[in-house]
Amino acid sequence: MREENKSEDVLKDITSGEYKYGFTTDVETEVIPTGLNEDVVRLISRKKGEPDWMLQFRLDAYNWWKEQKRPEWGHVKVEPVDYDKISFYAAPKKKSENKEVDPEILKTFDKLGIPLHERDMLLGNMPSQGSGESMMAVDAIVDSESQKTTYRDKLAELGIIFCSFGEAVREYPDLVRQYLGKVVPTRDNYYSALNSAVFSDGSFVYIPKGVRCPMELASYFRINSSGTGQFERTLIIADEESYVSYLEGCTAPMRDENQLHAAVVEIYVHERAEVKYSTVQNWYPGDKNGRGGVYNLVTKRALCAGDYSKISWTQVETGSAITWKYPSCVLKGEGSSGEFYSVAVTNNYQEADTGTKMIHIGKNSSSRIISKGISAGHSQNSYRGLVKVLPGADGVRNYTQCDSLLLSNTCGAHTFPIMDIQNPTAVIEHEATTSKINQDQLFYCQQRGIKEEDAVSLIVGGYAREVVQKLPMEFAVEAQKLLSLSIENSVG
Amino acid sequence: MSAEKQYIELYNSQRPLIDANAAPVLNACRESAARVLAEVGLQKAKDQTHTDPSEMLAADYAINLARHEVPTSREDLFTCAVPEMSTSVHFLVNEQYVGGKHRDNGYFAGSLREFATQYPDIASQYYNRLASQPTDTGDPRSRRYEACSFGESALNTMLCQDGFVLYVPSGFEVSKPLQLISLLRAVDDLMSVQRLLIIIEDHATASLLVCEHASRLNDLSHLLSLQVTEIFVGNAATFDFYSLEEHHDLCQRLGQIYVHQKAASNVAIGLYALTAGQTRNRVHVCLAEPEASIQLYGMATLDASQQVDNLTFIDHQAPSCQSNELFKYVLDQKSRGSFLGRILVRKGSDKTDAHQTDRNLCLTPDTRMIARPELEIYADDVKCSHGATVGQLDQNALFYMCTRGIPESEARMLLMFAFMSDVIDGIRIEPLKDRLRHLIEKRFRGELTQCKGCAVK
Fold first, then answer.
1. pLDDT of A118-147, one tens digit each?
2. Are B69 and B14 contacting, i.e. CB atoms less than 8 angstroms apart?
3. CB A410 to CB B360 under 8 A?
4. What's the number of domains chain A is made of?
5. pTM for the full model?
């Protein structure tokens, strides 16, 4: 029954269209002058009231970054970013000293369709007991600042820490210091170094030993101000035998400029712990002629440090002018496992170069990669992946499947996998196919009275299903809708 | 001094000597090649293969520019390599054509120098047409592939003096397979600058087997073979090209094969490395006109510290073309292998059917395999797929055979042999197929030091 409703929603949505989240919110925003230099790094650190070690961390990253050249190996055309024209810190001003969130921002989240009880939460009301709706704790981040983190107290009862990164630095400095930069070192790459230097906020999650987080944790990112970039930092630590499912969503207003989003996500997974990280990425993709849109240049990595630990990445990528990201798994623990499920949709002039890395270090570690690319319009969609098995990793198992679907004759679909195998006991499989929509299927649907566009939507839905299924319920519905919207008018 | 500089200096100082011992058509291409080499240099391709050409070519090799006679009589050197296969045999010692039965009625098979002198019009029409410039893929995002190994081709063009030519005019069918035995032989370190030019005109048919051998006159001399092969296949023509490599561990090979196919042409290429020192093959196939098809096979059985890289690039430029690639490696001891296969389907190349498979067996912990099967597609009505696996022998199958009384070593052999069989099945010359099966079996049994029928001394 639920399935049917979902399909109906999809069909209804397909008749409307365009980017729905392109509005701006009119709030008073504090923006620091544009440009990037050491003083700006110090200013950001001062604004956040950070301790000295944090400032040193930033400066170290900044000094390394300024020596580096922009990487160019991606199958994307990124215009050089003029860092002198970007403001690296923007935050909506709080109306008063009390904890109230600006009503405009509340309206924004209302428009973004974040479920009602969450809005209640932002106002400080508890959802009615037994309402049957699932609970989700949200960290809402606008531009550079976290606005509010919900359910904090309830989670704290279990020892779970879920707060903005800035608060974590102030309240749990030891934890942050212990793990920050351990998975993604400051000098990892150009964009992670930039992020390490200027990151402003993000989410911090700590799940203590043996605790199963009772609700989904979610971060919702929104770029609101113009002329800014967003550099958020997320750090998730899952202690022994714990479990957490974490969601991430993002949107931005429609603007002619290319806004920069360079985030870093670090996940540290201890023995027998499990982390599930889901993303529905819907940054503004630019208009039909490829003007504007967000540059999404993100470093995401999880370290399965403990034995039998598990990490699962699920991503639905529909937005951004440029997507350049590879959520990776370093499988260090014995028997650890990494999963990567991805649907990347590109339309108009969008370009996506995305995939994953599976680095097998631990014995009997296993990984699974399912990547589905859908390209339409004039877009370019690439899968790039690395499966590396180090000499000591006996009994490694990997399965990779990457399929591409082409919806127009002006788009491109590419796969660039690398398998680097240094242990003979590894069993590595890779499969990839590229094709357009099966004409027989399309014909069959149309013959049964389903319109061509709806038929395409159905077939694409089926094609992406394997990945969308892995999303938590709240996101799966949204992802389905997004998929249909993104490919609208792209048939033929 | 960087590797390319020493060769450019050599070229500048020895230009009269080089020209005097070659043909005008060859000489005409040297100047521009030298410029390309100076510009591009000899660099490691940015593609994670094991071979670094700049390192390979940095050593101080002797090059036989004065064309000193190699003291050999070919009857002393060779007997038939593939028995039961009645072939027309031709011989190259290093890069020098030393004879064979050539110019049978109606086609030319023989020395490049001779061909370029006798038929300068045809030679200049084809020579160095494919190897001289990097392909423009039409997309700036693909820039990382540009130029990478054109330095090596330019180096070859700059110094090339002789080699082998097969020219089959329109409509001619060469019924017997041709066999080219290419032998590396030197007392000192030597680089052989070898060139093959193959022109199969419209509706013509031919097949060529190249046996790569190397004499081991002592345990000190290193041999490097720098090969460029240009293959032109005309409308509805058919051509089979097989390369059987049996080099020893002091040999290095940098091979570049360029193929240009016209409408409805059909080409099979097989690269079989039974033993190798350090080999890197680059195959560049351009399917320029509709309905052309290519079968590309590759195989390597490696042990000790042997190393084979195969880089293939199939460029689908026209609609309704087919390509099928199959590469298999068996890696033993400390050997290393890599496969980088790239398929490009350009805009408008609808109805393309492109498949690529790479399967590898790693037998010991010290082996290393890198596989990169890549697809780059700019057309929508296509069927493309690639698959790659790295693994070990099926333990269940092994166990089953052991329970049936087959000794484990024999069972392993059987499985390895079965693993390789479909690469051999692609060969379109029956006697060669049988011969290769025999050689592979011997190779797995460790009996193969050299191809026995072909008594290389």
1. 444 444 444 433 333 446 777 777 776 766
2. no
3. no
4. 1
5. 0.80
